Every structure is written in C-alpha cells, then in structure tokens.
Amino acid sequence: MKHNKLLALTLAVLLLLGCLMGCMRVKVSGKARENESAEAVQDEPAGTTEEVFSAWNEGAPALDTLIDYVEAVTDEDSPDFIPESRRIAVFDMDGTVYAELFPTYLEYYLMAWRILADPTFEPDEEMLAAAHDIRAGGPTHTYAADMAVRHATQAARAYAGMTLNEFSAFVTSALVRDADGFTGMTYGEAFYQPMVEVIDYLTENGFQVYIVSGSDRFICRTLFEGMVDVPDEHFIGMDVALEASGQGDTDGLDYVFQPSDKLIRTDRLLVKNLKMNKVTAIMREIGKQPVLAFGNTSGDTSMNLFTITDNPYRSAAFMLIADDDVRDYGHPEKAEELRARWEGYGFNVISMRNDFRTIYGENVTKTGVFRWTEELSGR
Q: In this structure, are 181 and 280 located in the same domain?
C-alpha cells in the first residue's frame, strides 16, 4: 500500500511538473512571437518622402524647407529640438487648405444659398441686400471692403435659431453638391491635397494642428469631419453667441439649462476671426505661441508674424500663392506681387503652379463654367 501511494504521489508530481513546463513553453513562445512582431514592425520601412508627399513636385523649395525644419525640431540631439507640448502648428483654411475660388468662399456661398435659394427661409431686406452683393461679386471675386464683417453679421442672423445639429445638416447639404467650376469633385472634397499631406505629416511628427479660420467655427468642423484628421477642439473661427432654446432674454448667469432645451445659434456676432483677431484668439484658446503657421492672404499676416517674432523656439511661416490659372482659378500676376510681399516678411512661399503635382486629385478638372448666377437667382 505504501508503495502504491508513493507511486501515485510520484506520478502526480511528474504530471504537475509537465504542466508547468508546458505553460512555460507557451509563455516563452508567446513572448517570442511578440518580439518577432515588434522586430517586424521596426524593420518595416517608413514611407519615403515621395510617398508621404505624393501630391507635391519633387524639389519644391518650401516643402524642402519644411522637411528640414521638422527633422531638426523633432531630433532630441538637435539644438533646435522642440518638445511635443510646444509643437503647435496653425493653418488658415480658405485658400490655404481648402479651395476658395469656385468662385468664392464656401461660407459666402452657404449664406447666399440660405438667403436666395432656401425655400424654408424668409430673409429680410438687409439679408437680401448682402446676399445680392455676394452673388454679384462672386464671379470676379470682388467685394466692398466691409463685406467680411457685413457677411458675418448677416450670416449670424440668417442661421439664428438653428441647433448645432441643424446647422451641420444645412452645411452638409451643400457639401455633397458638385463644386461649381469643376468636374469630379464635390464641395466637401475640395481640399488642397498637398496641404492635407502637410497636416498628416506634422501630426505624425508630434505636432498639434489647429485650423484658425475667418470662416464660422462650426462650418469648419463639419467640413473637415471624415476628410482631414483635426480634432473638433482644434478649430478656431468666426463665432456667434450660443444659448439654450428656452433661455430667451435671460442672462446666462440667471438661467439653468433644462432637459427640454437645445443649444441654438443666436444672431449675435462675437468675432470675425481675421487679421489681429487671429492672434488674440490663438492665445485665448491655445495659450501658446505657435512654431509653424500657414496662410495665404493679408488676413493671415498677423498670425504668421506673431509665430516667427520673439519665439523661444525655432519657428517658420508659410504663405500659399494662388498662381495656377490652368488647374484652378488663380491670378498669376497678383500672386507674384504677393510673393514679393511675403518674402519681404520672411515667409516661405508655396506656389500652387510650381510646387503642387496635383491640387485636388487626378480626376478633377477645371471647367471654366459656373452655374453661380443661375443657382442663386431665386430671390
């Protein structure tokens, strides 16, 4: 009996040791597979510059400058190294990342359509006058000097009472339409592909990208959603006051949001985010001086100069010039005047004609024909 018990105990110990060894082999094998996977990822070649910037022409001077800059400020051994928390890049939207020449700004088109063609909306005479001036000035891109603020004021009124979801749906209804003056592209797809590549490249290299636009903040959010990877909280733009749907004339300090309330737009313009207003908005909302800035007009000059002035980190500013009148509706002569001005400020100039291999994509074609007047002839 003792012999049998000893034999049984020995067998039990051997079985236990066998299980333990098997488990160890499984764990070691699993770890080996993890190591192999990690090595495979490390050995996987990163995309070449040509692959990352496939929409750019090789040797574009501004792009080479940007790549040299990013490689220097992300190298921990470089005297120009910038910690990720301070890698702030700000981009204007219209004419810098997104088209503005079909034949005018998206936000102008949206307001004109709301006032002149939306059967669900009844505009007053003041709104109609502003919309008629936009319709008349669109094809030649010429407006009175006060149009930016006048548009913003009337746009606030035209969208007042909409919830944020209703406004987003209104914007989306326009984005799915074919972009005027082109074939093969909707309004929602009219991004400059080379500049989208720049945003992706900076994001991959630890930069926080912000869109600082003269256009309505909520137009920007809806436009970029699903198209370009910028977080909602990284949009700074024209702003109107918001309020609860049941708030009425009650001050926000005296009103409690109710379960039946919706957040709605009001007719009170808070800021038209252009020129110096961009600088103050950046410091209010980001709280840090950018190290990179990208723009295209005088509305971005202050933002760019702010970025490269007295910056504790290596900084750079870029201006895009609309000098391509073959693939887009650019103005080469005006663009060359702007080139001289921007270079005088110390900005790097991006030429759409010379630097962009493609602007909107291979299947997009400029037609030179607009349906602008007909589409907005309702009132």
A: yes
Cis amide leading into 103 (omega within 30): yes
pTM higher than 0.90:
no
Residues 371 and 343 reside in one and the same domain: yes
How many domains does the chain fold into?
Answer: 2
- 91's tokens: 């981009």
Range of the domain at 348: 57-239+271-375
The full DSSP string for 223-254 is HHTTTS---GGGEEEEEEEEEETTTTT--GGG
Instruction: Evaluate whether residue 262 is within a structural domain.
Output: no
Comparing CA positions, the residue from 164, 122, 143, 369 lying closest to residue 265 is 164
pLDDT tens digit at each of 379 positions of the chain: 434 433 343 444 344 444 333 433 333 333 333 344 444 434 444 567 878 999 999 999 999 999 999 999 999 999 999 999 999 999 999 999 999 988 899 999 999 999 999 999 999 999 999 999 999 998 888 899 999 999 999 999 999 999 999 999 999 999 999 999 999 999 999 999 999 999 999 999 999 999 999 999 999 999 999 999 999 999 999 999 999 999 999 999 999 999 999 999 999 999 999 999 999 999 999 999 999 999 999 999 999 999 999 999 999 999 999 999 999 999 999 999 999 999 999 999 999 999 999 999 999 999 999 999 899 998 9
